[in-house]
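Problem 12. The chain below contains 217 residues. Write out its predicted structure in C-alpha cell notation.
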Amino acid sequence: MGSGSRNTEAENEVNPPWIALLFALLCVSLERMGWSHAHKIGIVKDIDEYKNRARLLLEGSQAVLALADLGKIRAIEVIQTLVLHLHCQQTISVGGWEVQTALYLAVAARVGTMTGLSKLTAEKLGETPKPGLLKREASKRVIKTLNRLLTVSHQLGRRAWWNLIERDWTLSLRMGNTYVVNPHQNFSELPANLEWEDLEDGRRDFFPRGWESWTVQ
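Solution.
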C-alpha cells in the first residue's frame, strides 16, 4: 500500500521548469506566427485577443518558473525558458522591455554559470567526452550510452548559452555597451554545426559539418 502510494506520487509529480518551457515555447510560437495567420486558422478572433493570449502565456511561464528553486534545480530547461523569456519580453512587452529584459538576462547568466554552461569545452571530432565517474565493471555499451547522453546535453547547453550571449550583446547597445557575461570568463565552445537529427537517439558519434555549409539549426 505504501509503495503503491509513493509510485502514484512520483507519476503525478510536476516538473516546473519543463512546464514553464512549454508555455514559453507556445508564447514564442504564437508571436512568430503573427496575428493574421493565427486569426486565419482560428486561434484568435482579433489582434487584441492575439496580444492577450501571448501575454498570458508569458506570464504563465514566468509564474510556473517562479515555483522552481533556481538555486537547486540545475536543469537545462531553466536556461532554455529564460532565453525564450528574453525574446518574449522584447517582442510583446507593452513598454520598458529593456529593463525587464536586463533583469532576466542577469538571472539567466547567473543560473547558466552555476549550471556550468560557461565551461563547456569542445569534443574531438567523431568522439564523445567521458561522462565522469563510471564503475570499472560498467559495460562498453553502458559507457557509450552515457557518453551519448552527455554529449547531447553539452550541445543543447551550448545552444542555450550562446543564445543568451547573443541577447547580452544585443542588449548591451542600449545599456552603455556593458555586458552581463564577462567575455574573459566565457570558456564555452560554440555549438557544433549539426542538424537536429544528429542529436537523435541512436547516433553514437558526432561528425559536425564545416562552417562553410548551412544547417537548419
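Discussion. The radius of gyration is 20 Å. Students who got a different answer should revisit the alignment rule from Section 12.3.
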